[in-house]
Amino acid sequence: MCEPTAEESQANQPIKSDNGETVKISIPFPNQIYAWYVVIILMLAYTVSFIDRQILSLLVDPIRSDLKISDTEMSLLQGLSFAVFYTLMGLPLGRLADQRSRRGIITLGVLFWSVMTATCGFAKDYWQLFLARMGVGVGEAALSPSAYSIIADIIPPQRLSLAIGVYGIGVFLGAGLAMIIGGTIVGMVGETGSINFFLIGEIRSWQAVFILVSLPGLLIVALMATVKEPKRRGTIRTSVVNGVDKIQGVPVREVVAYLRANFRTVALHNLAVASLVIALYGGMAWIPTFFKRIHDFGPAEVGLKYGFIILIFGTLGVLFGSWSSDRMLAKGVRDAKIRTGMYSALGVILPSIAFPLIDNPSYALALIAIATFFMTFAFGAAPAALQEIMPNQMRGQASAIYLCVISLIGLSIGPTAIALITDYVYGYDEAIRYALAIVPAVAMGLAAILFALCLKPYKDSLDHLNEWSKYN
User: Fold this and answer.
1) DSSP assigned state of 311
2) Beta strands in 228-312 (DSSP E)
3) Closest to 289 (Cα-Cα) out of 298, 279, 278
4) Residue 4 covered by a domain
5) pLDDT tens-digit series, residues 302-338
6) Which helix (H) or strand (E) holds 66?
7) I need a surface site. Which of 8, 12, 161, 448 has the fewest CB within 10 A?
8) CA-CA distance, 274 to 395, in Å (whole number)?
9) What distance in Å separates the CA atoms of residue 447 and residue 341, rounded to the nearest whole number?
10) How large is the greatest C-alpha to C-alpha distance in the chain, in angstroms?
């Protein structure tokens, strides 16, 4: 099952223009059992990345206590420290994904972020932890541009939303497992306790969590060795080297020109998803702390309950949203992927306002489950929409820009906006409930408007790609 069948290697011969430089390559899709095997491995890589990324949200109070920092400083560890290098490195890595082995890029990225996650466990002060979190961002920037590009090359268009949705499940599996694993470990040893760690000696409980969650990355590196770099479908240039066709990169000026021609679609799409991410990451960063401060939950209790909500309802939301998007597309709704994002945002607004203000924790958890289900609709459809309007050798770069925008806006603003409102508008820790009611609701309202404005431009961009492909 690990190897592609002969079907993939039986690609049609390139169709060259008279000058021998511009080509279109028609390549059949690989065996779909193998293709979905690759999707699952990429999903597992995304899961591990999100465990490493999200574990910090359950360790807020022990890290604050040990490092003597504020909510705002903590939010910078959760957002800005990761987002800056995640976005800066994402752009060159996205271009590299359009020209080099995407499998190799992912493998090196997984190895690097796992090492940097372990390094977080050895941090002795705030700035050491800040720099280590930057390193995690560098490694994780290698994953999604290459993963999106691979999936678009091995899965037929009518199943693309579902396939990218399955990949996107990794966000919620990773975040949920981070809550459950982190809460269990911290609950066992105490929030400010120490643990005698194998071969290392005595370290704080939060340090042990970072070291432990870095280990699954080694398994992903081994699994990536079973994946073959797929042939690129719809490539527009090759050169002949020793009688073999080699894919050439598209000049940056052509990428810029194509993006400029589709600027309205790309900008509205990226900003709409960024608004979703403000609500998602802001909530995931601070909901565990909310339950501790307002409802007196311990780390193990909040990790278990909130972790399972993310695991179950996040996964169901991604799958249902992706399935609905593909189903609408099959019925002729060309802007189905954008509509899915709009419906997602509208469904979240009311439960996201209500859950922080309700005094009963069981009702609050139920409302979070509803909000999580709706919020995750777009996490298969939205990236798939971008793949649908971009030529093959521009997908990695477009995905990197997309990830840059949603990370800089979502990761930086989401956690920090909630912390700033708590610290400086209200000025006391329990006011986190009001910040959690304000920030996600405003962000989701904005997302719904932006998705609605994107509907027509998106269809125009689909038409533009069809026209552009006739001459390139």
Assistant:
1) I
2) 238-241, 244-247
3) 298
4) no
5) 888 998 999 999 999 999 999 999 899 999 999 999 9
6) helix 60-67
7) 12
8) 18
9) 8
10) 73
pLDDT digits 0-9 by tens, 340-367:
999 999 999 999 999 999 999 999 999 9
- The token pair at 428 is 């006391």
Helix (H) or strand (E) holding 106: helix 102-120
The radius of gyration of the chain's CA atoms, rounded to the nearest angstrom, is 22
Segment among 97-106, 168-177, 185-194, 261-270 with least mean pLDDT: 185-194
> Quick one: average pLDDT of 438-462?
96
Is the torsion defined by CA of 327, 403, 276, 299 positive or negative?
positive
Query: Are the CB atoms for 51 and 310 separated by under 8 Å?
Result: no
9 domain-assigned: no
CATH code of the domain covering residue 334: 1.20.1250.20
Residue type, 427: G
Instruction: Give the residue among 169, 220, 130 at the shortest CA–CA distance from 372.
Output: 169
Inside any domain, residue 38:
yes
Q: How far apart are CA 152 and CA 160, in angstroms?
A: 7
Q: Which of 17-31, 60-74, 218-232, 283-297 has the weakest average pLDDT?
A: 17-31
Into how many domains does the chain fold? Answer: 1
Task: Note whether 164 and 395 are within 8 A (CB).
Answer: no
Separation CA 341–CA 272 (nearest Å): 8
Q: What would the pLDDT profile of 185-233 be if each residue is shown by its tens digit?
A: 666 655 556 666 666 767 787 788 888 889 999 999 999 999 999 888 7
| Structural domain span for residue 132 | 28-234+254-471
pTM of the model: 0.75
Whether residue 134 is contained in a domain is answered as yes
Half-sphere exposure of 418 (CA within 13 A, CB side): 36
- Integer Cα distance of 104 and 23 in angstroms: 25
Residue 242's pLDDT is: 53
74: Cα within 13 Å, side-chain hemisphere: 27
The neighbouring-strand residues paired with 24 are 15
Count the neighbouring beta carbons within 10 Å of the beta carbon of residue 404: 22
55 DSSP 8-state letter: G
Task: Quote the pLDDT of residue 198.
Answer: 66
- Pairing type for strands 244-247 and 23-24 reads unpaired
